[in-house]
Amino acid sequence: MQKVKAKKHLGQHFLTDLSIAKNIVEALSQTADYKKVVEVGPGMGVLTQFLITHKAYETFPIDIDRESIGYLAEKYPELKGNIIYGDFLKMDLDDIVKREKFAVIGNFPYNISTQILFKVLDHKDQIPECVGMFQKEVAERFAANPGSKTYGITSVLLQAFYDVEYLFTVGRDVFDPPPKVESAVIRFVRNDKATLDCDEKRFKAIVKMAFNQRRKMLRKSLKPLLNESNKDQEILTKRPEQLSVQEFVELTNLIDNN
C-alpha cells in the first residue's frame, strides 16, 4: 500500500493511500460525453495527480484554502489557470466550465458533502457523473433502496435523477489524521429522466414532509395536503421508506390533481 504524507490544515482528514486515490479517479467513466472534471477540495492533490494523467479530461481543482491552492499551483504548473480559489457551493460554475458538461469528483469535506450533492442536482443537466468520498453512513443513505432503514429524503431526491452505486468502503487508517468514522466511495450517474412527471418543487416538499414523520403512515404525515377525494387511496397506507421514486411522483400527482 503506497502512501503519501499529507500536510495538516483546516482540521481536514487527508487521504494518504495512493492506490485508493487512483481507484477513485478510475471510477470516472472512460467513455463519457464530457471533457471537464471539477475537483472539489483537492487539498494536497492526492486525486489531482491521477486526474491530470487522463488526457481526455481537463481538470479544475477548486479549494477554499489558499495554502492548498499555492501548493497545487507550484506542484502542477500544467494546471496553471485551472486551479481556482473559492467556495464551490457559492461560485457560478458556468464561469469555469462555460456551460459545457462536466463531472464532479472529490474527497469531499464531510460537513458539506450533502450540500455539494444538492449543487450537483442544481446542475444535473450539465453533470453526467459524480464520484466522491463520503462518510460511510451518509454514503449508505444516498445509495439506500426503498424498504431500507437508511432510505430517506436524500435517497429519493438524488435517485430521482441519478443512479447511485456504492463502490467500496474505506477504513480510517488511510487518512492523516485518522477520522472517527469509516468512509465510502460512491458514484452518481445521470439517468434518462429529463424531468419528473410531476411538479418538482411540490415533489420535494412532499418527500420532505413524509420523511419528517417517517414512522407514520402517509395518510397521517401528509394529512394537511389531503382531501375527501384522495384520503382513502391505498398508497397512503404505506410509510415513506416503502415508496420508490416513481411512487413519490405518483403520490405528488395524486395530491395535486385532486
Short description:
The protein is an alpha/beta fold. The protein has two domains: 14-190, Rossmann fold, CATH 3.40.50.150; 200-256, Helicase, Ruva Protein, domain 3, CATH 1.10.8. It has helices spanning 18-26, 48-51, 66-75, 94-97, 113-122, 136-143, 153-159, 200-211, 218-221, 245-256, and strands spanning 14-15, 36-40, 58-63, 84-85, 102-107, 129-135, 162-170, 175-176, 183-190.
In terms of structural class, how would the helical and strand content be classed? alpha/beta
Radius of gyration: 20 Å
Overall CATH class of the largest domain: Alpha Beta
Low-confidence stretches: 1-11
Mean pLDDT: 92
Q: Could you say how many structural domains there are in total?
A: 2
Q: Write the element-wise H/E pattern from the N-terminal end onward.
A: EHEHEHEHEHEHHEEEHHH
The CATH superfamily of the largest domain turns out to be: Vaccinia Virus protein VP39
Helix count, DSSP H or I runs of 4 or more residues? 10
Beta-strand percentage? 15-25%
SSE blueprint:
Blueprint: E1 14-15, H1 18-26, E2 36-40, H2 48-51, E3 58-63, H3 66-75, E4 84-85, H4 94-97, E5 102-107, H5 113-122, E6 129-135, H6 136-143, H7 153-159, E7 162-170, E8 175-176, E9 183-190, H8 200-211, H9 218-221, H10 245-256
Parallel strand pairs: 2-3, 2-5, 3-4, 5-6
Antiparallel strand pairs: 1-8, 6-9, 7-9
Helix pairs in contact: 8-10
